[in-house]
Amino acid sequence: MIEARNLSKRYGKTVAVDTLSFDVRPGQVTGFLGPNGSGKSTTMRMILGLDNPDNGTVTINGRPYRDLPWPLREVGGLLEAKSVHPGRSAFNHLLFLAQTNDIPRARVSEVLELVGLTAVATKRAGTFSLGMGQRLGIAAALLGDPGVLLFDEPVNGLDPQGIRWVRMLLKHLAGEGRTVFVSSHLMSEMALTADHLVVIGLGRLIAERPVAEFIAESSGQHVLVRTPGSEALSAALVKAGARVSPASGGALDVNGLSAAAIGDIAAGLGVHLHELTPQLASLEDAFMDLTQESVEFHGGAGTGKVPDPVAVASSPSPDEGGTR
Amino acid sequence: MTVIPTFGSTQHAGHYGPLNQLRSEWTKLRTVRSTTWTLLATVVAVVGIGALATAVTAAHWRSGGFEDRVGFDPTARSLAGVFLGEIAVGVLGVLAMSAEYTSGTIRATLAAIPHRSLVLVCKAAVYFVVALVTSEVLSFAAFLVGQELLKGSTPYATLGQPGVLRAVAGVGLVLAVIGLLALGLATIIRHTAGAIAAFVGSLLVLPLILQAFPTSVQHALLKFMPLVIAENMATTNGLRRAFGNAVLFSPWVGFAILCAYAVGSLIIGGILLQRRDA
Asked: In the prediction, which pLDDT does B127 show?
């Protein structure tokens, strides 16, 4: 269980995290979603006691990270892929971590096996591919068999098999009853992996609710209708209170009536239906709707400034600053 | 109310402590190649240059002038490699800390042991023991090899003579403490190149800058220079003559000042480590 209360952090004039409060509960995968530079990594680092919040607190199982008697046995964290000395072998990287928390040497081999790095355990980590580096980071997070796991963008740089493997692993860990908190800027990935979502933008909490609810709320009631009698049906639907707009290929996008109601109205008119499909908004759409106001490079129409997404996106933000 | 399962290892008794971190720091130090390379460089510097200096001295003794023979200190001559040794040992001290930052390992380290001053103290302790054992062995080796090479051609020293054991053992201590200063500087600066520049600068460049000052100021400040303190430790008869009228500290007072530099840099580094975001 992770509890964040009014967490705030600024770097100079930039507010990275702004009075952020949320809970991460055990037994489910909680997605931490936000655009680049929204404060996800900063929040992760504050949970792990690496960055000091300017205000607010965050506790793990009721205690601040710095008060944990054996931190790696309680919390496992995957931060950036590169927190490994390139000249040290995977085994030795895990060994020095194990020694800090009195974790037996045998466990090092165990987690290497688990992430599939046994064959390259004695190779220097600098020779690893991005994906192997991520696997090593995941092995480090699992080292102490912790009940709370944090993963910052775990699928970054992974190939499709790797992404699938991480997805299964996260679900498996949550299924065992662990608290799993995983950040991503990819909403599609979260739709597949997470049960619960914490959405932030510009360091502020935008939404905190189950994924299913999140999608349902944002979907509204859109139904795609294809029919040869579109004029007659449109008129009847509008009369019934729906908003009808043309969709691609001569279809109709009907908003405000359920598929069943539309079917009944069509039957009453004797109009043939060729398609009647309720539209679920993708998590991506929902996310875009929610964060539209808070994206850093959102073009301000009133300022008369032309936004340049490329330039802004490539400028370093305190959140995604990478390694020093 | 749902029962939250506990995972095997959270029931582990006690709390992490210095022993955990000492073992971990020892693993870190011995599992990177740079440690081997810098220690090999220290061997070449201390023993190699000492042997070269004494061999050349022995070969040129007969043909050399009077000025070469007056005040000849066979102990100091065999320890001539100490200056390059300081750089090599210092680079190891810098890397022991700066590599954590350049590679990002510091985040893994501090997430495992959130007690940051404990991390710094253990890292410094492990480094100091490794540096001290290495430097003492090399200092004695350089002395013994050097005297062997001088024997027969020039006056030579034995460990029983006054000041000789102090010089040889003292040089080993000086090397290890100068390395600690380097580790402290790296904790403050956090970048390999920057820390090495600051370290070499404080060793070699400060005395050069001092030359731009009036003689009285030079004489007042020279005795505080780490390089002068090290050189003074390496001689059996004192450096007073070599530095004109400058009055130097006695070898052990100089050593105490050097220790103060090292501890000072570690304390400043420790305070910054506590305050800064990792």
From this structure: 98
Tokens read off for B125: 């302790």
pTM (2 d.p.) = 0.85
Whether the CB-CB separation of A8 and A53 falls below 8 Å is answered with yes
Look at residue A84 in the predicted model and tell me its pLDDT: 92
Distance (Å, whole) CA A97 – CA B235: 44
- The span from the CA of A211 to the CA of B192, in Å, is 46
The residue of chain B nearest to residue A71, with distances taken between CA atoms, is B112
What one-letter code names the amino acid at A3? E
Residue B9 has pLDDT above 90, yes or no: no
CB contact (8 A) between residue B104 and residue A65: no
Assigned token pair, B71: 């005040």
Euclidean distance between CA atoms A213 and A199, whole angstroms: 13
CB contact under 8 A, A101 and B16: yes
Q: What is the pLDDT of residues A25-59, one digit of tens each?
A: 999 999 999 888 889 999 999 999 999 999 999 99
Condensed to tens digits (0 to 9), the pLDDT of residues A306-324 reads 444 443 334 444 444 444 3
Which tens digit of pLDDT belongs to each residue from B73-96?
A: 999 999 999 999 999 999 999 999
Task: Give A24's strand partners.
Answer: A2
Reported ipTM:
0.91
CA distance A301 to A303: 6
Strand, helix or coil for residue A254: strand
Kindly state the tokens that stand for A319. 């959140």
B contacts of A92 (beta carbons < 8 Å): 27, 31
> What residues contact B152, with CB distance under 8 A and at least 6 apart?
B58
Of the two residues A279 and A140, the one the predictor is more confident about is A140
- Contact at 8 Å (CB) between B127 and B134? no
| Chain A contact probe: residue of B11, B34, B107, B109 with most A CBs at under 10 A | B107
DSSP label at residue A124: B
Q: How many contacts, defined by CB atoms under 8 Å, are there between A and B?
A: 136
Distance (Å, whole) CA A262 – CA A242: 9
What is the CB-side half-sphere exposure of residue B63 using CA atoms within 13 A?
Answer: 5
Report which secondary-structure segment, H or E, holds B229. Answer: helix B226-234
